[in-house]
DNA sequence: GTATAAACTAAGCCATGGCTAAATTTAAGA
DNA sequence: TCTTAAATTTAGCCATGGCTTAGTTTATAC
């Protein structure tokens, strides 16, 4: 599968600069949404399964400090994804709920896909967390086809 | 494929907090390496195909300003991935070359895999750029199996 | 050989998202 | 009720990686 370094130039010529720049721009943009998606997805999961989303739990599950989580939640509030009053739990806005649902859908497809192609459950959980933000609709469709196959 | 929201709780219970935190930690760590990998991979490609890697070209292909690219190249130098003297072109150290080769290998596998499952070339190029940093060895092996199948 | 353009560096701005330490508020228990 | 513990916020630190504007160096072309 590996590409012979000596043949690399011929087999994998440089892309057009703009096309390449565009690909990196897409990644950077996805990047900006990653944190937002992870938070709303997690907050939604917490509300569903525990009745409410407390900052302390969000922080614990993200594996970061409470102040760090709080800072990002403040940004999410500024941007209209969540609401919360001081010292109270966190709620999703319509916008936040929509994003959470879409993210979870994507996350689930990636997770199921990984399982389908023989990846272990543990790895599927870890990898899907990272991959979900970088999968286009077209690729997602390809994943769905494979999940549904046979 | 989509999961009925009403059944979500039962079908997709919360993970253990530590396991979930660990997955996010993996993503954050991958994140830290992303920029580094993109740069060394690009620098290696430029050296191979054009004889040298100039900052102006790196910046253009990443779609960012020259000073921004310069700042990151300075970090890469600090961390031992590249060398370069003022106003001169950029070279990879052993460490940088190794990382570039590994990154390209991974990148290629993801790209070939996407093509194999029916994703268009354009999308495969874009998505592989984002996905390559979040694919574990185990998943990569699954991808390789599929590329080699039939 | 010198003028000019291109490449690069320097300085300083910004937002994000980590952190710790300390203050505040809320909730719980005695 | 009152004390205390837990949750949250505030303040301030740091690195990364974007940006612009302005200065410096190098290379080109005349």
Provide key terms for this protein.
homodimer; 150 residues; mainly alpha; Arc Repressor Mutant, subunit A; two-stranded antiparallel sheet; globular; disordered N terminus; DNA-binding
Q: Assign the CATH architecture of chain A.
A: Orthogonal Bundle
The CATH H-level superfamily of chain A is Winged helix-like DNA-binding domain superfamily/Winged helix DNA-binding domain
Number of β-strand runs of chain A: 2
What pattern of helices and strands is seen along the backbone of chain A?
A: HHHHEEHHH
The amount of helix of chain A comes to over 70%
Number of domains of chain A: 1
Total number of helices of chain A: 7
CATH topology of chain A: Arc Repressor Mutant, subunit A
What fraction strand of chain A? under 5%
Structural class of chain A: mainly alpha
Q: How does this structure look, described?
A:
The structure is a homodimer of 150-residue chains. Chain A has 150 residues and is mainly α. Chain A has a single domain, classed as Arc Repressor Mutant, subunit A (Orthogonal Bundle). In chain A, 70% of the residues lie in helices and 3% in strands. Chain A has 7 helices and 2 strands, in the order H-H-H-H-E-E-H-H-H. A two-stranded antiparallel ribbon of chain A has the order 1-2. In chain A, helix 5 crosses helix 6 and helix 5 crosses helix 7. The longest helix of chain A has 34 residues. The first copy, chain A, starts with 7 loop residues before the first helix and ends with a helix. In chain A, 35% of the residues are buried. At the A-B interface, helix 2, helix 3, helix 5, helix 6 and helix 7 of A face helix 2, helix 3, helix 5, helix 6 and helix 7 of B. Chain A binds a DNA duplex (30 and 30 nucleotides) through helix 2 and helix 4.
